[in-house]
Amino acid sequence: MSIEVQNISKNYGTQKALDTISFSIKKGEIVGFLGPNGAGKSTLMKILTTYLIPDSGTASVNNFDIETATKSVQQSVGYLPEHNPLYLDLYIREYLSFNADVYKVKKSRIEEVIQLTGLTPESNKKIGQLSKGYRQRVGLACALLHDPEVLILDEPTTGLDPNQLVEIRELIKNIGKDKTVFLSTHIMQEVEAICNRVIIINNGKIVEDKNLKTLVKEQTKQVIEVEFDKTISIEDFKIFSELVSVISLNETNFELTFESEKDMRSKIFDFAQDKQLKILQLNLKNKNLEQIFREKTSKK
Predict the structure, then answer these.
(1) Residue 300 predicted with pLDDT over 60
(2) How high does pLDDT run on average in the chain?
(3) Per mean pLDDT, which range of 151-165, 256-270, 271-285 is the poorest?
(4) Signal sequence: where (predicted)?
């Protein structure tokens, strides 16, 4: 396993940031780590990159224990923290050259990561002259500099414009073909575009850990909102054997929940024709990742 976490806990005084969490990630997986603010995402990432020591439990990265093989973990991980620390007075190449010396990397690698992260147009500028999006690219370039086996990215697309978002997403997807990528984000579309697996954390506990396609596919219930041109009774909907529940929004507007793998909208059209009704609106409101996230992380 590229990342192995076993019963990790971390407290800040009386606040429990992580509560005995466990999971493993294989090489080649791109895993989205989701959770509301304060859920424990950054704390876990700092533990996996050896910046923090857990109160209990064990973890390894690339088969190196985070506490007994700290240097080996650091050498095999590329880390982009949420608040990207940069030397603003240095030119991009100066900054990458400094980090290349730290990692004992050949200087030819600097030009490779500049091209890889799309920094070429701005490569002659000081970091302080760059937009927030390009500063993120510098941080990503630094994380890639020593060609690590594992990338840990905390909010990697913060501050990027829509065009840059697409480019960085494609970059991360390509990197993930032969590396392990573990990234946190608040942008659900980003997870859907990049990741093949989702781990959701809430109040320091993992509340969901599934393959993204499986997670979405499991939402077999169809929620359909329909509005007719005439009044109709809830009793009329009992004709549908797949019907789970009916909510009357008003005399002509209903929210219907079905348990079916087939699209029930065609059956609603047939139903309306039989009842000599016109459909004024028909909306499929199936759960997406954002709705699943809200369900898993809402306060109960």
Answers:
(1) no
(2) 91
(3) 151-165
(4) none
C-alpha 204/C-alpha 8 separation (Å) is 10
The span from the CA of 159 to the CA of 132, in Å, is: 6
The CB-based long-range contact list for 289-295 (8 Å cut-off, 24+ gap) reads 289/188, 289/191, 289/192, 289/198, 289/212, 289/215, 289/216, 290/188, 292/208, 292/215, 292/216, 292/219, 293/34, 293/188, 293/200
Instruction: State how far the Cα of 138 lies from the Cα of 82, in Å rounded to an integer.
Output: 13
pLDDT tens per residue across span 200-229: 999 999 999 999 888 876 666 788 999 999
User: Is the whole-model pTM more than 0.90?
Assistant: no
- Sheet of 221-228: strand order equals 243-248, 253-259, 221-228, 279-284
Where does CATH 3.40.50.300 sit in the chain?
3-212
DSSP assignment letter at 82: S
Question: Residue 92 contacts by C-beta under 8 Å, 6 or more apart in sequence?
Answer: 114, 119, 122, 123, 124, 125, 126, 127, 130, 138
Q: Which is the CATH superfamily of the domain at 3-212?
A: P-loop containing nucleotide triphosphate hydrolases (3.40.50.300)
Backbone angles phi, psi at 259, to 5 degrees: -110, 95
DSSP string, 19-51: EEEEEEE-TT-EEEEE--TTSSHHHHHHHHTTS
- pLDDT for position 83: 84
Q: Which fold has domain 219-294?
A: Pseudouridine synthase (3.30.2350)
Residue 41: C-alpha distances to residues 47, 184, 235 (Å): 10, 7, 48
Considering the chain, tell me which residue range(s) the CATH 3.30.2350.10 domain(s) occupy.
219-294
Measured over all CA atoms, what is the biggest interatomic distance in the chain, rounded to whole angstroms?
77
